[in-house]
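Hey team,

Sharing the ABC transporter ATP-binding protein run so nobody has to redo it. Sequence (341 residues) first:
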Amino acid sequence: MESDVLLSVRELRIAFEGVETVRGLSFDVRPREVLALVGESGAGKSLTARALLGMVPRGATTRGSVRLRHGPGPYAELVGAPPPALAALRGRRVALVPQDALSALSPVHPVGDQLAAAVRSVTGVSRKEARARAVAALDRVGIPDAVRKARAYPHEYSGGMRQRAVIAMATVNEPDLVVADEPTTALDAELQEQVLRVLAEQREAVGAALVLVTHDLAVVREHADRVLVMYAGRQVEQGTAAQLLDRPRAPYTAGLLASLPRELTAPREGRRRLPTIPGTPPTPTALPSGCAFAPRCPLAEDRCRSEEPRPQVADDGREVSCHRWDDVPYPAAELFLEQPV
Ligand SMILES: Nc1ncnc2c1ncn2[C@@H]1O[C@H](COP(=O)(O)OP(=O)(O)OP(=O)(O)O)[C@@H](O)[C@H]1O
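Structure output:
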């Protein structure tokens, strides 16, 4: 493994009662890098994100490898690790910013107490020092009058402030990796932008890498270095944000991009009407044969319906899992403008 890799995921598979919902994902995250996991609902983004913390739901079977570097030391394998080993990593090495801020905070303890407890759970500092770090963390995420607000309960915070407090919680122990699972879904557009900015600032401040789960390619353009596009539990395309957004090579990525408002796509791509990808993603129990996207793909041919594409390395170094990537036009949104909307 390359020495500059912080997190290495290989052939990750997650199944419920024998039905795979994440079907062999491989990717690396380097220190300080922002990797976005993108795809429609049900693609397996949240499950993948949770596997990075050893937090898959009860009843899930995980296979493959998720290895996290332990400072300069060896890598820790999270798949199959005993709960105490996972607990020792969480918060300290890798931390979660969940979708729903309310569920991440206990309603019965003041926010500052919860942050201080998080500090004391991974360091041996005094109560006073933990308290000081908690207040500093709240202050750092832009919570006004942090000393007083530390004594308040989560329900006394506004939605945006609560999300900031959760980011403070995730970053208070300066983890190497932060996993943020759609941290803005419950917020309006202005608050979303604020929260993503705070997350970016905190990531910079503590020097952490970030895995950001989102269904929103506009967020990717603004906040990610690299992108992994997922469909039906598999990788569709993986590369730098610039590579994928400026010239998608997988028809699915092109479809996601085509449905973005004009100002967010490459200049020539957003004209006429906003197309959407026709149809819906398959459920894990009813996957089509061949490429899972074939029934919705304007470029699908017989081979796509019978043979599942493996990731291939394209001319610019990105990985793309599509038999016809070389036939994807530029601008690629053309593909979907032909479809009935
Ligand atoms: N606890 C569970 N039991 C059974 N199936 C599950 C469970 N959690 C998730 N799944 C299934 O795994 C698949 C992927 O779910 P996941 O939540 O990872 O998708 P996602 O891409 O994050 O979607 P969303 O954006 O809606 O959160 C879905 O088809 C879902 O039904």
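The chain has two domains: 7-224, 248-337.

Ping me if you want the raw files.
A.
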